[in-house]
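Lab notebook: predicted structure, single chain.

Context: the supervisor wants predicted structures on file for every construct in the current expression panel, including those that have not yet been purified. This is the next one on the list. No modifications to the sequence; it matches the entry in the shared construct table.
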Amino acid sequence: MNRKDLLFYDAYEAFYTMAEKSNAFRAFCKDAFGEDFSQDGFSNIEQINMILQYIPQKDNVNILDVGCGNGKMLGYLQEKTKAYIHGFDYSEEAIKTAKFLFPYNSQFREGIIGEIDYPEEMFDVVISMDTMYFAKDIAVFVAQIKKWLKQNGVLFVGYQEGDVIPKTENVNNTTLAKALLVNGMNYEAVDITEKTYELLKTKRISAINHKNEFEAEGHGEWFNMLMGQTECVTEPFEQFKEKMARYIYVIRK
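Prediction complete. Output recorded below exactly as produced.
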């Protein structure tokens, strides 16, 4: 498959090139999300810290991040747990940066969901933060992740509806929930839609606070992108939640 035909490929190549160079973007991420993981979405430090409780406190722990970007989230988790980190992403630019930033006890690969593979029962934890949407068939991809997970392993998913994926009735009605049911995987889920609304408001304020820095770097288009991404919080929450939803799923093998 030609990666350039995939969803947002050219945009993400440009994004990770910008993220590597821009001091304004790094400062924005820290203000908006509590830490700089080069976020292009909704994953703040609170959500990432939720993952820590599912990473076993033992030797030889392996964790995989699906769509790892430039690896900064994995690097943070490794620092906290000493786990061996694995990640793949379709962005050549992102993987090049990840390999440079986190060269030890790590494996980063260029790869596409549905084409890349790993050995059976390799991972204690698999993480997918806003990347399930890139699978052609989520149920097929869940089956693949199930194969990769060790017995009693955990799949941790941040899942947004209302942009790439149409909004459904509730947390048990999503495409992901149906894919988990087909694969016989039990899950717990938390609705964080209201927290996401508040996060997006913080994201918008943080972008405005760093506007001059973005423009001074020649990155005004990325400031405009951030404003577009957060336009939805200029309306009341009651209207927002009719269009958008966000959930955290914790799935056990």
